[in-house]
Amino acid sequence: MEKVGILVVCYGSRGVAIADAFKRSLEYETDLYIVDRQKNPFNARIAKEHIVIPDLNVNEICKFVKKREREIDFGIVGPEKPIIEGIRDLIEAETEIPLICPTKKFAIEASKVEQRKLFQKAIPEVNPKFKVFDPADYRDVSEVKREVWSWLDELNNQAVVKPDKPAAGKGVGVWGDHFRSREELFEHFLANFKYGRVIIEEKLEGEESSFQCFCDGKRIVPLPETRDYKRAFEGDEGPNTGGMGSYKDTGNILPFMTEKDWDKEIEIANKIFSELRGKTSNPELRGTPFYIAFIHTAEGPKILENNSRPGDPEIMNVLPLLKDDFVDLCMRMIDGNLKEPKIEDLASVVIYKVPPTYGGFNERFPEKVRREELGSPVDLSGAEKLVEKYGGRLRLYPGSMEVRDGETYALRSRAVAAVGLGDGIAEARKIALECVEAIRGGALWFRKDIASKEHISRSIERMKTLRKRGGSR
Ligand code: GLY
């Protein structure tokens, strides 16, 4: 068997799922060189070499890679921070190792303003109404306030406030969730505006879905659609999180989508791709340049945002179902001869188990926190037994977890993901639920309605109502 050395830059369960997909290769013997934020129990076990760089500093990663240049054939990057900081530009300049992720120039999440302008040029109908407020254009607060007020008149107050740069100031704020009056909205706006440009855009009504694709620079190949659960608590309540879980149906689309929605999404992604690629090829886009959060509205799909890396948890719905060898697929992305990947026609459900501090659970439900377990090690052995029992229909991916003195502890973010696979969503969900329930300790909790029949039925009904309102769709 041919031996391949692969660098995996990892953040959480998504990176673990990527590493697992390489380890399952039947065509190659893979030596994994994994860069992690902490000593992840899964990665530490399977890596040929495992190195902890807590802030994923690109210069530190590059130093590590240079020392292993002869052993590493290619690399792949999970999180956006090193992509935005130019990890690919740096490593490809300093070594002969190709990376799978876009270059800094194509990390289009780096600026929400530029992102909206790109969509406006490529396919304007996918943008909500939006207006950019630039501190350089205003003499004082009262001037910008007047303009914000007049824009809110046009939007009938149904507005979303977004800072240009990721994680600047207070972040994204939504009318009805984060503020209920113009004064509150403006306070949120100013907290972002002091750091730079801010967008105020129309709040859209609809159901969300996640589109992901692989790209070799010449073409994009779409992966089946998934649904993320961003809010912390059941019934889509509470603060936004990185995603508490996600589901994928059999086939390519979700139960509340139509084939027409799916075709439109592919058309949208291709138009944006053509805009960036130019006429023939642009290998700088290699990787997952379009992980698009869509919202399905009465007028069809519109874009909430785009990231140039795979979704977490969404890529975990897809990677375990790849029939093609993932190493081979990556080599095709590098060589520019990517083919449509074959994917098993199964449903998948991801459920994350997270610590009480995550998503504000301990503040909202203090009575539900199992205090006797706080700070205790997490016992994954019961869940691991289930992985054996389900023989390929269950994956267990520790994320924000650390091995310390022989025990495994949950850290602050999403601790561990269970991925159930099944002939339908209900079966996949049952397996994932059994798995998260078998994980003990650390006072971990999870959202119980991920992919539930009730939740999915609500999405279907809501889309029916919106489509009626939208007319012919
Ligand atoms: N699931 C949300 C994200 O990956 O950004």
Describe this entry's structure for a reader.
It is built from 15 helices and 21 strands. It has 473 residues and is of the alpha+beta class. The protein folds into four domains: 100 residues, Rossmann fold (3-Layer(aba) Sandwich); 74 residues, Dna Ligase, domain 1, CATH 3.30.1490; 131 residues, D-amino Acid Aminotransferase, Chain A, domain 1; 109 residues, Alpha-Beta Complex (Glycinamide Ribonucleotide Synthetase, Chain A, domain 4), CATH 3.90.600.10. The strands form five sheets. An eight-stranded antiparallel sheet has the order 16-15-10-11-14-17-21-18, with helices on both faces. It has a five-stranded parallel sheet with strand order 3-2-1-4-5. It has a four-stranded antiparallel sheet with strand order 6-9-7-8, sandwiched between helices. The site of glycine has 7 residues, from loops.
Quickly describe the structure.
The chain has 15 helices and 21 strands. The protein is 33% helix and 24% strand.
Which structural traits does this protein have?
single chain; 473 residues; alpha+beta; Rossmann fold; Dna Ligase, domain 1; D-amino Acid Aminotransferase, Chain A, domain 1; eight-stranded antiparallel sheet; five-stranded parallel sheet; 15 helices; 21 strands; 33% helix; globular; binds glycine
